[in-house]
Write a structure and sequence with these properties.
3-stranded parallel β-sheet, 11% strand
Length: 462
């Protein structure tokens, strides 16, 4: 059996983190089974759909390493096919025109609200033999849903789901302007694209029951459905686009590495034994829908940062620099290319205590900038003893013929003994003078990363 999966976002805003996970699961299932993963842009909402969001969705998924097969499938280019299917459903007796006015529909909704029951269209025009068609009124087209019996979906995540057909109203498939609704367009597109597996959020479960009826009416093969639980905020509520850190861009701009975020999203609601870290290939090889849980997953920023820190600490330093350079080129100021060799050789300690690429950027400021600024709080720490320590260090430093940790340690040790202080008493003023802050990379790493003239120049400015 060939596997065809798809991710179908609407380009009405930045890519939501829940959507990213849905795309990832579809991509993994397809690749695991040597199948195809397609990207369908559902852009039929003309007012809200924007080209900029479409480009952002595609570039974001590329950044994460989720690449689609073939060209993007643009839904708006296939509207004629959707309308043709609606007309065929009318001919077959599975759909009908409804001439109810908006006022009538609103009255019905208000009545249900007062009775405390959910609104279901009363099927007034389903059998219109005794009704007079009003003049100059454009109808909507409604699907003639089954009234009796039950519909069963054998969901690959949720298990067998069974609902009474009477709970599904005669839903609209064509609006008054003949534009197709989501239920019709998604079903026709999935059929045209030969989609075999539909993985989406479990808030789409009722849509699957509606769409299955269209499949059955058209005598089409029904795809396998898998409804994955939603992602909740840290407060336990359904995650929305209004939440902080709800879009992919929110993570990229603080310096989360693509591999780390992909690994985190993989583990968000899916597990394989007690394994935590997965390479891209391991993700493909081990992914299976049986590992997806049935309960909502809670977004955990601390866990994301921890995962990111693990990746920063363990990946090859040349690879880390590529991530770092890509990040700063997009979100920070350009750096002098002459500084790149120093930055590359400093990756090993710039990543210490860094949870994000932004942390590394902050740690690297003393390398990137020729002139550093010392904050007023740190200036207060440079007392007379500190200035004496700095002057004496310069004298001893200039005498050195080679610069290694082994040659620097005796100089620091002698200053500690001479002034009856500790490492902080000597190291703190030196670090402030060299980095601009009492916080930052280790003292020896800082001294060895700068060339001799830079070290002396910065120390003499105190």
């Amino acid at each position: 059996m060939s596997f065809n999966c798809r991710f179908a976002p609407s380009p009405t805003g930045p890519l939501h983190i829940g959507g990213v996970r849905t795309a990832l699961f579809n991509w993994l299932l397809a690749k695991k089974n040597k199948g195809n993963y397609f990207l369908r842009i559902e852009d039929t909402d003309k007012e809200r759909s924007k080209e900029e969001f479409k480009k952002q969705i595609i570039s974001s998924l590329d950044w994460l390493g989720i690449k689609h097969d073939g060209a993007e499938y643009i839904q708006s280019k296939h509207v004629d096919k959707h309308i043709a299917v609606a007309e065929e459903l009318i001919k077959k007796g599975f759909a009908y025109p409804c001439y109810c006015s908006e006022e009538e529909i609103n009255e019905m909704k208000e009545k249900c609200k007062k009775q405390g029951i959910p609104y279901v269209y009363n099927r007034k025009w389903r059998d219109a033999k005794d009704l007079e068609i009003p003049r100059n009124v454009k109808p909507v087209i409604r699907f003639k849903s089954k009234i009796s019996g039950n519909t069963i979906i054998k969901d690959l995540v949720q298990g067998e789901r069974n609902i009474s057909n009477s709970t599904i109203e005669d839903f609209v498939i064509l609006r008054k302007d003949k534009s197709p609704t989501y239920q019709l367009s998604a079903t026709v597109d999935d059929h045209e694209m030969k989609i075999t597996h539909v993985i989406r959020g479990d808030d789409h479960m009722i849509n699957s029951f509606k769409q299955k009826q269209i499949y059955d009416a058209m005598s089409w093969e029904v795809p396998n459905f898998a409804h994955i639980p939603l992602i909740h905020s840290e407060q336990g509520k359904k995650l929305s686009k209004r939440d902080n850190a709800s879009t992919l861009e929110d993570y990229i701009k603080i310096g989360i590495i693509s591999d780390a975020l992909r690994n985190y999203l993989l583990r968000l609601g899916w597990s394989y034994k007690d394994k935590e870290i997965f390479t891209k290939q391991e993700s493909i090889d081990l992914f299976d829908l049986s590992g997806v849980g049935k309960s909502p997953s809670k977004l955990d920023m601390a866990r994301i940062l921890s995962m990111n820190e693990t990746y920063i600490k363990t990946i090859d330093e040349n690879e880390l620099f590529k991530f770092f350079k890509e990040y700063i080129s997009k979100y920070k100021s350009l750096i002098d290319m002459k500084k790149e060799p120093t930055l590359i050789k400093s990756m090993g300690f710039l990543k210490n205590k860094a949870k994000t690429l932004e942390d590394m950027w902050n740690n690297a400021q003393y390398i990137i900038k020729d002139d550093i600024e010392i904050s007023s709080d740190d200036k207060k720490l440079l007392d007379d003893l500190s200035k004496t320590v700095i002057k004496e260090f310069i004298i001893e430093y200039e005498k050195l013929s080679s610069f290694t940790r082994e040659t620097l340690e005796p100089v620091i040790k002698s200053l500690i003994e001479k002034h009856k202080t500790n490492f902080k008493g000597v190291g703190q003023p030196l670090r402030i003078a060299l980095v601009g802050s009492r916080f930052g990379p280790g003292l020896y790493d800082v001294i060895l990363s700068l060339d001799k003239t830079q070290v002396i120049k910065r120390l003499k400015q105190i």
